[in-house]
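FAQ: What does the model actually see?

It sees only this:
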Amino acid sequence: MFDQLLESTRALPDSSAILLVHYGDDWLRGSEHCLLDLCLALKKQGFSPIVWCNAQTLSDALKSHNVPHHCSEMHIFLGYQKKRYDLYAWYTQVKTGIQLIKKYRPALVHINSAAPCQWMQAACLLTKTPSITQLHAHYGTFKDRLTLGLHFCNIIMGVSHAAIRALDRDGINRQQTRIILPNAIDALALQQQPPIPIKKALGLKQDAILLLSVGSVIKRKGHQFLLNALCTLNASATLNHHRKPYYVAIIGDGEELDSLKAQCDALNITEYVFFLGNQDNAFGYMLGDADALISTAIDEVFGLVLAEANLAKIPVIAPNIKGINSVIKQHKTGLLYTPNNSLSLQKALLSLSQHACWQVRVSRGYYRALTTFNSHNHIYGIVQAYEQAIEIHHNNTLLTRFKKWLFVCQAIKKWAFKKNLLAHCIINKKTAAIK
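And it is asked to produce this:
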């Protein structure tokens, strides 16, 4: 089926080209910004990045940065979209992957999210091209990990342990190399943004307490919890005339925007909440006169904006969950409150008046942002991972592939047993309830 496409790709020459394949929504958020930064860093190191993506917004951004790219629709077989049973769409994407490998002859394919694994694993296998998969999200459903082909990857690079923790439960650790490499921030580029004081623009006094929330306005970010906590906190401030009310400025856009505005009306806190929409210079707002950056995320894999806040020398308050506590160190570079605990969040917010403690945390956070999340260290780690992926590819034999298939079959058997056991438990409970 792929014979004609495979001609002249049997023995790829040494190349500085890296083909990066990205699947995502039509926006520029965390993983997209990281991809853009990586492309620019690779170019500085003498590599030639080429990107295949499915989003026009990312395509436009790549064009503005003079990064060669190819943009086309991508559909996940057995996914959650309309064409989830379209096997021909999957075949077409494998075919496109082979054509791009044949055209650019990359030294390696960097699969920048789990979805493209489904067709790029096949394209790389057929063209004998090394590949590495980078995960920016947590894939908690076994069905997704299996159908996307994560178990068949030779090497997986997670931006945090939260990104790869679900794979640990599947029992194929010995047949797969895994690396944890945190995302990086381009400190020099970010620090070129001028500070944006917004209190005056919002009609607030200079001594007002303004919290900044930066990120997509989606359920996973937990803005609803933030607004409820704000309502409770300001209600007690009304009774205690010595306490100042808190204000929140939300930078970002998303599907929950209208719902949050309605919630503000229902809680009667509209005067305390400001929706600023998407801002290209969000870091400039962090450098401004806001008093703290607040996160109420329910689930997070890597809190990139929190590392940026450390760089901006602004206090950080966030939930103590995986993906965040690997970025912010409790009591050292910020304060982590108990997830979904309003009293814990309120206590953390009230601590903002303890200026001496926060000065130490802010200084430590700034140092950690410059060192741990340094872009130079990150690209060095990426290049090392590429070299490791190429070495693993060359050492990959039929025996190692057979062992991997064996372990995958065992993982499926284990999952099916648990599923069957759970179904029996549910049936027994229903039977007992009827009796």
